[in-house]
Amino acid sequence: MVRVVSLLVFLCLALPAPSDENHHHDDLTSRELGSVHFPVSCAPTVQKSFERAVALLHSFAFETAEQTFRQVLQDDPHCGMAHWGIAKSMWRWGTPDAAKREQGLAEIRAGKALHPPTARERDYLGALGKFYAHPKENKYKRIEAFNKSMERLHRRYPDDHEAAAFYAWGLIAADDNDDTHVSRKKAGAILEELFKLEPAHPGVTHYLIHTYDVPGMAEQGLPAARRYAKIAPAAPHALHMPSHIFARLGLWQEDIDSNLASVAASRNAAATHMGDEGHQFHAMEFLMYAYLQCGRESDARKLIEEVKSLPKMKSMYGDDADPQTFALVSYAAGYVLELHDWKGTASLPLTPGTAFGDDSITYLARAIGAAHNGDAQQARGNVTEIESIYKQVVAKKLPFADWADQERQEAEAWADHAEGKNEEGLALLRGVADKQKEGVFGVTGDLPAREMLADMLLEMNRPGDALAEYETQLKINPNRFNSLYGAGRSAEMAKQPERAALYFQQLVKVLRRRQLKPAGTGLRAWVSFQIENQ
Question: What is the per-residue DSSP string for 382-423?
Fold first, then answer.
């Protein structure tokens, strides 16, 4: 906690809120954002501001980066690369919609119309232009087109570290559906070499974390994770991003420290009008999850109350979604599910003001709770509610149909189990579990499907099968409280006492690392008692 308070004090001193909001970013230096060297042919007076904007871009402070690039353009109307920066700022958390793509293409055209005097700048504009080409076409392969152009640019200018970093990021973005991670490994090789040359570069460390943010590779991301927050302490996302690696490895205290610092920076960003305050909800999602994995239930409850007291703010994703309401829905469901409070889960109230579809989170939790309580009728009733939402999502061709279908299948599985149709329930959960290859690291109002599969097998008195599923889950999500306990209990029931002892000892070790004593009940209180009386 002392470290977080110290960081907040530092940020408050480093980032005073000046009276002129158009220049409130001027005090941000390489000590707060990292070191970037990106020479452009614009007026020398805007060079530092341009590089500051690029540093913000590397730390996904998109709102602030765009504002800074626009200020560069205002200070030098002939700066073609400022248009490139504005367009790059519009490519945020995923492929932008058609309206944003048209805006991005317009910026690229405006930059080209200024006839940048260097071939390198024309190449930068041209490469990003490939991404924004054909803005109304949804099937156009934007990232692939961008990467091909950036690869040529990278080869043409091998000493341009910005070209290398942005090319590597494009490779990571193209790797989403590739289990072999060929592009990701290629990006890692580029970034590891850059990391040796530029250890204070925010993009290099950030993209290295993204490179290794997959099962089986996370350990390689620890050096960058432990470096990034020190490089860019003024960027909320830079303080949060290391927690992706910490969470993948089950390092809950480092996960907590990282996200507490990010929340503090997000709130400081709000005070200085940086436009990045919405980042705190993503950090709190990870924070809530980490609290629940290491026994800090009272802190998790306090966080829910804290969210209720926050003012309205924009989502970090730049859409119209209300991050506060979604947080309250998912945190409330996640809290009771993680604690296996089946009575509280079955009676979970709906949250007022939810966006269409989000009530399925509550209905799913209720279905799971009802099934564990043996109330088949209530479980089936909640399935009916989710099915109604799912059908509307499909009819309206909304983009989250796959997620709504997963909620429906999981609820259906537990209703089947409550009705004695165990094999049908197991088949449904196994189908969902086999698709969940990335793991769960934040509170989403759900539980890992494979862990639920193991829970169901254990309820059916099949401890050997349950143990195999818990162990598979722990490879993806190390140090999950419920999976560790479930594995230990399964091993115990399967007459494997030594194996059971290993899992219970690991669970005790996880809880022993916590900073505060949990104020839990039931199982968690029992585990805490064992720790205190050893």
Answer: HHHHHHHHHHHHHHTT-TTHHHHHHHHHHHHHHHHHHTT-HH
Q: Would you say the CATH fold of 455-534 matches that of 2-272? A: yes
- Please check whether residue 298 is in contact with residue 519, taking contact to mean a CB–CB distance below 8 angstroms: yes
CATH fold group of domain 455-534: 1.25.40
C-beta separation of 62 from 269 below 8 A: no
| Spans of all domains in the chain | 2-272, 455-534
CA atoms within 13 A on the CB side of 41: 13
Residue whose C-alpha is closest to residue 534's, from 506, 500, 508: 508
Determine how many CB atoms are found less than 10 A away from the CB of residue 247.
27
Tens-level pLDDT at each residue, the chain (534 residues): 333 333 333 333 333 333 344 444 445 555 688 989 999 999 999 999 999 999 999 999 888 899 999 999 999 999 999 999 999 999 987 788 899 999 999 999 999 999 778 999 999 999 999 999 999 998 889 999 999 999 999 999 999 999 999 999 999 988 766 778 888 999 999 999 999 999 999 999 999 999 999 888 999 999 999 999 888 888 888 899 999 999 999 999 999 999 999 999 888 865 555 566 778 899 999 999 999 999 999 999 999 999 999 888 777 666 667 889 999 999 999 999 999 999 999 999 999 999 999 999 999 999 999 999 999 999 999 999 999 999 999 999 998 999 999 999 999 999 999 999 999 999 999 999 999 988 888 888 999 999 999 999 999 999 999 999 999 999 999 999 999 999 999 999 999 999 999 999 999 999 876 544 444 445 555 555 454 544
In sign, the C-alpha dihedral spanning 330, 332, 334, 337 is: negative
Task: State the residue for tokens 């290629």.
Answer: 186
Q: Look up residue 265 and give its two tokens.
A: 């920076």
Q: CATH number of 2-272: 3.40.50.300, 1.25.40.10, 2.30.40.10, 3.30.450.70?
A: 1.25.40.10
> Who contacts 115 (Cβ-Cβ below 8 Å, separation ≥6)?
80
